[in-house]
Backbone:
């Protein structure tokens, strides 16, 4: 491998490292969500990526966006990281909630009962928590993790990363297919027909009851206009 290619892969905040951040936080995020649901709702999440493993891609994508967007701000001090985390984290959480309603007709969280919320999608205390995470993660933890990643053989890391990337794409595709199929069941009700083995597979292994176990906070919702 050319030295230029190696340097590009090894750079402080490149695609190679961002993939491992995505994978790490997909796992960490699922653990946090599982514990949070147990504490607040008294249930264990069945979780999260259906039959392929326990991951929360929303957390993984959020970590990638936060890292890639705020990494250059670390030299400007904690306040810049905090403010960036508040704004970026709040925007990301709002858009995730909005897209879930527009595409799936569901909500995965509702902050309506919390103070200083916007349409129940985000609220100020949680946005400030995003800011705190940005200060700790981008300012302290990520540089350490970046150094640890640099110690692994690059060729082996790229091969393993490629295998895991395919695995995660299948993981995400299956989760999306099951959720979209649930939208069809909800829209068509008793009139819906099964046209092929693919739809039969989704209806058999991921009925609405199963999805509710996997996503216990998921509720039907109208599109916010």
Residues:
């Amino acid at each position: 491998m050319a030295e230029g290619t190696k340097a590009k892969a090894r750079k402080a905040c490149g695609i190679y490292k961002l993939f491992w951040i995505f994978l790490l936080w997909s796992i960490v995020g699922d653990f946090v969500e599982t514990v949070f649901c147990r504490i607040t709702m008294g249930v264990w999440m069945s979780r999260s990526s259906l039959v392929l493993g326990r991951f929360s891609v929303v957390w993984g994508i959020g970590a990638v966006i936060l890292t890639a967007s705020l990494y250059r701000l670390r030299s400007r001090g904690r306040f810049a990281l905090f403010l960036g985390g508040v704004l970026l984290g709040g925007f990301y959480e709002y858009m995730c909630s909005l897209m879930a309603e527009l595409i799936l007709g569901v909500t995965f969280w509702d902050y309506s009962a919390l103070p200083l919320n916007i349409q129940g999608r985000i609220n100020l205390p949680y946005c400030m928590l995003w800011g705190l995470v940005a200060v700790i993660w981008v300012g302290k933890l990520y540089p350490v993790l970046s150094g640890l990643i640099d110690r692994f053989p690059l060729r082996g890391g790229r091969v393993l990363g490629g295998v895991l990337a395919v695995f995660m794409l299948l993981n995400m595709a299956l989760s999306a297919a099951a959720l979209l199929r649930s939208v069809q069941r909800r829209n068509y009700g008793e009139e819906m027909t099964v046209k092929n083995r693919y739809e039969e597979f989704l209806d058999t292994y991921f009925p609405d009851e199963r999805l509710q176990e996997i996503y216990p906070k998921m509720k039907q919702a109208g599109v916010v206009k």
Confidence is low (pLDDT under 50) at residues 48-52. The longest strand covers residues 106-107.
